Amino acid sequence: MAKSIYLDKKIQPDEISLNDDLGEAKLFWDEIISRIQEIYSLVSCEWKHYGVAWGWSYVIKSKAKTLCYLIPQKDYFYDAVIFNDKGRAAAADSELPEPVKQAVEATKNNPKNIPYDFNVSQKTDVEIAMKLIEIRSRT
After folding, report:
1. What is the pLDDT of residue 26?
2. How far, CA to CA in Å, does 2 sit from each of 69, 109, 116?
3. In a domain, 100, yes or no
4. How far is residue 71's CA from residue 54's CA, in Å, rounded to a whole number?
5. In this structure, are residues 97 and 105 in contact, taking their beta carbons and an 8 Å threshold?
6. Domain range holding 89?
7. Is residue 8 part of a domain?
8. DSSP character for 109?
9. How many domains, the chain?
10. Which residues face 78 on adjacent strands?
11. Residue 1: inside a domain, yes or no?
12. pTM for the full model?
């Protein structure tokens, strides 16, 4: 999982810091959250601190299943998704761009279910992020 720009456990990110640090990408952050809430049932969202090495991530779940982690960066964020073998196969059979498919497939060599971190920095990235989340939701 990518390291967040917010490392201090005592300072949980808020709307002001996200607006300042994500810039235009904050629109895409909000869109992904909104779309997830429209599509999936019993959605919960919470900030979670993963220690000084990784910092704060925004965890989005549907029921008990983690759909993704949104990890803030400067002017962009990562949509981090953990895929099992079934999820990697579904991604390979999907209409995702070939470089994304290859990167998802490469996660099989990661220990301890390290997620695939997809960089979201422009509007076109939102659709790819949503497809990754959709695959995760059904595998």
Report:
1. 98
2. 10, 16, 9
3. yes
4. 9
5. no
6. 15-137
7. no
8. G
9. 1
10. 71, 119
11. no
12. 0.94
